[in-house]
Amino acid sequence: MGRKQKTTNNLLKSVPLPTETQKISKVLNWRGKNLFEIQFSDGNTTLCTLPPKFRNLIWVKRGSYVIINPINETERVNKIGGEIEHVLFPEHVKNFKSEGIWPQEFEIQDDDNNKIVDSRNENTTNSDDLFVNTNRREIDYDTSSSENEEED
């Protein structure tokens, strides 16, 4: 088994638990060159790097959650504030919520995002919002007049 295969198996099968120094954070944006802008549960943002062992194996999306090793302010030489230790999948998030490890701030944000998506879905079900092709003639089929003609 190669290095990449071992790494992917560890990512998919292991259930990571953050240590005292590690933090759960949300990915806000990709900045290029394996740098990601992340947000801590307290609202602070910083840049984090994706280590070489994860590159070309896993893709981190906006809005996904990660466990990072933050760098102390005294040790910082540049703008990078930490390194991504583990990328969390929905199963990991569900496990953290059941164990009570999940930060409450992220639950509130997720609930707000779900409400926005739900309200968008409710609005799209109206027939008034459907696209109308103006290049075609509108034909009104009057069902009551056709039924009367068939009876005669």
Overview of the molecule:
By secondary structure, the protein is of the alpha+beta class. It has a domain at 17-109: OB fold (Dihydrolipoamide Acetyltransferase, E2P) (Beta Barrel). 34% of the residues lie in helices and 23% in strands. The protein contains 4 helices and 5 strands, in the order αβββββααα. It has helices spanning 3-13, 90-99, 104-124, 143-151, and strands spanning 23-32, 35-39, 45-49, 65-70, 80-88. It has a 5-stranded mixed beta barrel with strand order 1-2-3-5-4. A hairpin with a 5-residue loop joins strand 2 and strand 3. The termini are far apart. The relative contact order is 0.13. The model has no long low-confidence stretch (mean pLDDT 80).
SSE topology sketch:
Layout: H1 3-13, E1 23-32, E2 35-39, E3 45-49, E4 65-70, E5 80-88, H2 90-99, H3 104-124, H4 143-151
Parallel strand pairs: 3-5
Antiparallel strand pairs: 1-2, 1-4, 2-3, 4-5
Mean pLDDT: 80
Structural category is alpha+beta
Q: Gyration radius, to the nearest Å?
A: 25 Å
Largest sheet: 5 strands, mixed, barrel
CATH level-3 fold name of the domain at 17-109: OB fold (Dihydrolipoamide Acetyltransferase, E2P)
Family: Belongs to the EIF1AD family.
Keywords: Initiation factor, Protein biosynthesis, RNA-binding
Domain S1-like: 13-70
GO molecular function: RNA binding; translation initiation factor activity
